[in-house]
Amino acid sequence: MYIGIVVGSVVATRKSDELVGKKLLIVQKVNPKDESLGTLEVAVDSVGAGKGEYVLVTQGEPAMYVFETSTSCIDAAIIGIVDSMEVS
Amino acid sequence: MYIGIVVGSVVATRKSDELVGKKLLIVQKVNPKDESLGTLEVAVDSVGAGKGEYVLVTQGEPAMYVFETSTSCIDAAIIGIVDSMEVS
Amino acid sequence: MYIGIVVGSVVATRKSDELVGKKLLIVQKVNPKDESLGTLEVAVDSVGAGKGEYVLVTQGEPAMYVFETSTSCIDAAIIGIVDSMEVS
Amino acid sequence: MYIGIVVGSVVATRKSDELVGKKLLIVQKVNPKDESLGTLEVAVDSVGAGKGEYVLVTQGEPAMYVFETSTSCIDAAIIGIVDSMEVS
Amino acid sequence: MYIGIVVGSVVATRKSDELVGKKLLIVQKVNPKDESLGTLEVAVDSVGAGKGEYVLVTQGEPAMYVFETSTSCIDAAIIGIVDSMEVS
């Protein structure tokens, strides 16, 4: 998983049925010094994350299993809100 | 998922049965400032996307589940058309 | 999927049973201007591709499903021969 | 798998049920000369790893199978503690 | 799959049960000119590969299926020994 910050959201009317009713958030991966890393990703929220929060993002097939169905087309999901991290 | 813009299409007569009848679109990943990121990808359309549209692309195993069969060889699929995005 | 050009082949006598009888081709990813991108990949052919041809390559778990068995160790497969592409 | 060193940990109160009771460690990939490579990753510990230890990390779907359930949302797991490595 | 050269090995006493009795080899990806590419990877051997040999490595979920169980935590496996390759 990686740690990112929620920086925005996406509106899509025409989309896969699997995405209906789900919040599509835009996440920026960051390092512990809060520097941006890589490019933005659209992740589906599963924990009630909001803009500006630090979140834990899972990618690939594991992201499929975050929601009720195991045949989801979702390849990135927010699975935690980071309260604190300690790195040395 | 990432946000990209549809920039073209591919014609392939000899191909996997799974691809028959499906639209193979070429997608360029972009950032919110509309700058191109990385290399082009060929994604299978599932939402009626057309050239010039901003789309949501899923990759890897989750892309397999976009279509009727769960044993697809598809590793990238367009699963949404982006109406708007808000990033700060 | 990505578009590549078949640039060579690999001979391996000692190998997984899953690979026996299959053609192991070396593919170079290219962009529409025919410039090479990234490093070479060994992909298993499923459509009768030959050297010099432009092909469509799928990667990861979806590549497992290209062949008869769903428990294959194959992580890259050629699933189409590109007749033409149109990019703008 | 890659070899990394455990450099920290993450606290997340609001998170997927799958993560409850699991140790979320921050891992830095390193090369045999102990130089840092790439960005940090959050991996779930399965072997009792602690800070400063060299560990073996698996990624993607294989990480899902490290724990009791096969429908986990975990995409990175520590599956070994490196006693020694020999590279030439 | 990619082609690499076996450059070393890893000893890990404390590890996932899935890894017990398996040879953990360190592989360096190379190109046909024998130049090193990217970072080292730890791959589980399935074909009796030894140090200095050119091997074929599969990654991700397909690597899980190289061994007897389909619930393996292995994300990289050596599935062939390269006798020769021809690239132009």
UniProtKB/TrEMBL annotation, chains A, B, C, D, E:
Keywords, ordered alphabetically: Bacterial microcompartment, Carboxysome
UniProt xrefs under InterPro entries: EutN_CcmL, EutN_CcmL_sf
GO terms for cellular component: carboxysome
Subcellular location: Carboxysome
Record has Transport as a keyword: no
SUPFAM superfamilies: EutN/CcmL-like
Main location: other
Record-given protein name: Ethanolamine utilization protein EutN/carboxysome structural protein Ccml
Organism, scientific name: Schinkia azotoformans LMG 9581
